[in-house]
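Narrative summary of target 7.
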Amino acid sequence: MIVPLHRRLSRANFPLMTVALICVNCFVYLFLQSGDERVSQQAWDYYQQSQLGKIEFPAYLDWLRGREKDAQRLEFAQAAPAKIRIAMIEADEKFLTALHEDRIIEPTRADYADWHEKREEFERIRASTFTARHSLRFSQFEPGNMFSSMFLHGGLEHLIGNMIFLAVLGLLVEGALGPWWFLALYLVGGFGGALTSLAWHWGDHGTALGASGAIAALMGAYCVLWGTRKVRVFYWFFVVFNYVRVPALTLLPIWFGWQVLNLWLNRGAHIGFDAHAGGILSGAALALALRQYGRVRDDFVEEDTRIEQREVNATAFEQALEYLGRLEIPKARELLERIDQDEPGRLPVLVALYRCARYSGTPPQLDAAAARALCFAAKTDAEIRDLKTVCDDYLKACTGKPRITADVLLRLVTPWLRIGEDAAAETLLHRIGEQSPSLQSLPAAWFTLALRTPESSPQRRARLEYVVQNYAQSDFAPKAKFLLQQA
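Modeled conformation, tokenized:
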């Protein structure tokens, strides 16, 4: 068994259609199929009361005696109780096919008419169950039953097993395709599996049911959608189990080959290996078409690769910090530049690159590294404080005369005020004024700084006077004068 490891569930990737399909399958089994057991019991009771077993069971033993590979089944059938014998007959599709073709109970027998009437009544009772009415019938092309059969299950274990696979694969494939293409894939897989079963069993007597074909389509689609990207899968082979990373596309021949192999080796297993194989191919074909027409959400598909790369980069970042601590600047810079290329714009990396330029770099390199770091759009107080540390260090390195553009420095004033560093913001405004006194945004910044101080404080008056004296032609000078007059 090979199962891809699912992604952590979140609001962004919550598989609504997958959950809806699980609910539909559970509703059909728990409510619509719930009355089948009572009807089946009526059929078995009729079988025993009508004495059909006295005619059919000896014929069944003769059938088994004529088939060497059924010797073990013959031995078991001879000792089995009546109800088990009935179940064995009804589960043997080849025997039932021969029975319906009058090759077991031949028309020349004296009791043929009586047997035929009772057999038809028995089958009429059995066919009245919800499951029997809506199952896929071999040798009959019925689109309605092909659709309904993909929502039926033969037992609680069958349902639970299928729903687990649907949940695991649905979280991945629905995220890659979106809910409606995912639904289309599920239905195409169900029909593809049903058509394969009809082709394989045409001429046989029997039925098939279950969501396995539709779920197998998700397996085929998963392989094509993720393609050559390496994915983590869990495998279990007898007592051996482990996790492994393989290209997703390599799973396609493995999954498909396993179904085909079992189709030939385990024909009597009563498992729809034929439907599984058809579903896998149907899902792979539709996924290929959707990829060619650009219907795949590549951002979702590539998320695993990005997560893996982030983990690699996190390890590399720790190594780079160790190099910085030992002042092995070239090694640290090489790692940091590689991380910055993979994940551009991360503040810790930009700060570390600034430190590399500070310890071992030319003035232009220092200016470029400082500008990149100080242009970071900080969102949290902690990030603002990291930027302030870089700015303070840069101003110190430049002996108070920054070489980066005034626009970059002016962007820092508002974050400084946000964390209560008014004095630092005032110092920075003075530096900017010395560098670019005609910068249009300066009067607004000074006026904003003045408004943050208490109304009657000398500091407020000094800042308002600074606006009036240095920016007399600005729109803020009259406002500053008015406030000074009111004080």
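The CA atoms of residues 371 and 404 lie 6 Å apart.
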